[in-house]
Amino acid sequence: MRIGALSVDPPLLLAPMAGITDRDFRLLIRRLGGCGLVSMEFISAVGLLKEKPSTLRMLHFVEEERPIAIQIYGSDPETMAEAASQVEAMGADVCDINMGCPANKVLKGCAGAALTGDPELARRIVREVRKRIRIPLTVKFRLGVRSDRLTYLELGRIFQDEGVNAITLHPRTAKQMFTGQADWSAIARLVETVSIPVIGNGDVKTPEDALRMFRETGCQGVMIGRAALLNPWIFRQTADLLAGRQPQEPTLEDRYRLMRQHFSWVLQREDAKTALHKLKTFVGWYTHGLPHGRRLRCQLSQLQSAEDIMASVDAFFTAQMEGA
User: Fold this and answer.
1) Active site residue 35
2) Which positions does UniProt annotate for FMN binding (predicted)?
3) Checking DSSP bridges between strand 43-44 and strand 38-39, what pairing results, if any?
């Protein structure tokens, strides 16, 4: 798949997720293989221009992560255009506009998925951004704000007309948040409506789901988000399926090494409070489905430091690998 001049191979993309797709997680996914494009956590255009420390801290990336997309959100065309210009100056390979986030704090600012309810404002934002940058431009969006006002086909045509290089559709409304079932048939209708690449997103939980999305919708790329938290190997496994190879399941030792590597990065980069929160969060995801994993997750509320969590993880995997 090509996004403008950029080749995305394999055509599998890591979705931007707030509080999740930081440098450590992106690098982890990149090293496991199979992901054609990683995305940062979405960035506030206002926060970027005001140089808020919390925003600037999220913008760090390393060469090994390339190609990388930086996603921005906001509701003012000029502010978004200036933020996109800075994204380009930082060396991002792709600038992505967020018109899909359903979080209330984003919607209240008339940004994110709220823009699917105002196609003309969405057009002005994209037009201004496109005039300011030369790197590939993408937009991630939803079906609309509510089921009685679906705007995604209109928006797809607008984005194409305004020079967007590829679009990602999460086929739920903003009101749905992440409930119900993603309507993959809408992705197929969008593919039929526009000539630019369409990336499908939503309810891809397994490598087989990704292949089914390609087959059922005709999309050129698949973006995976929450499933990568439970199975960071999903990109490599999907790439294997696409290439006709039998995907391999990670061993218990593989999972232990991954957690050890990820958590060592977190401990090096984060303050004690943030490290504690991240380790508790990721332990919950990484041990999902493991024998006796619930026992470890139940211990988390009692642990008061990142070091205590690391010790519990070590003890858990040592016992599992010894067959205890």
Assistant:
1) no
2) 16-18, 71, 140, 170, 225-226
3) unpaired
